[in-house]
Design brief:
By secondary structure, the protein is mainly beta. The protein contains 1 helix and 13 strands.
């Protein structure tokens, strides 16, 4: 009797989980690419280029800059020029100040040991691409220190917004 009851409970849990996931689990389409900074010293001349394709022009997207740095990074922020060319458009530039630390809270973002990762939204609201095709983003550090030490990676993340 115990074996039958145990099997029935297990079956109910599996079916219940499938029903729950079927009604609440949604996939989020994500593109993310990060470039390693040579020697963890970001020279202004090194400008990572991130290229991806957009096929769904009906969807809305959030676009983020992603950064990974060590605890030895010397500043509370980083200034970047984000140059981008969207399908069928000219190259545009956006200057971005990304906070990495707060004097009262310490390092922002997520951390493991002495490495911290920050993701910063650079679109003020979800963005709809007008045309499908290739998008290119170039990241340029514009801090006074050159090379900028203790920066490990820089990249772009694009998430399709759920409706």
């Amino acid at each position: 009797m115990k074996k039958k009851l145990g099997s029935a409970v297990l079956f109910a849990v599996i079916i219940g989980g499938m029903i729950l996931c079927g009604t609440s689990c949604k996939t989020i389409d994500v593109f993310e690419k990060n470039s390693s900074i040579p020697g963890q010293e970001w020279d202004r001349s090194f400008q990572p280029v991130i290229v991806f394709n957009i096929t769904d022009t009906a969807a809305l997207y959030n676009i983020y800059v992603t950064l990974r740095h060590t605890h030895a990074y010397n500043y509370n922020n980083i200034w970047l020029n984000v140059n981008y060319q969207l399908p069928g458009d000219t190259v545009k530039q956006q200057r971005v100040d990304i906070p990495l630390a707060d004097n009262s809270k310490g390092w922002l973002g997520t951390g493991m040991d002495d490495i911290y990762e920050v993701r910063r939204l650079i679109t003020p609201q979800p963005y709809r691409f007008k045309n499908s095709g290739t998008c290119a983003f170039t990241l340029e550090q514009i801090m006074r220190e050159n090379p900028l030490k203790h920066v490990m990676n820089a990249g772009i993340r694009v998430e399709k917004v759920e409706r």
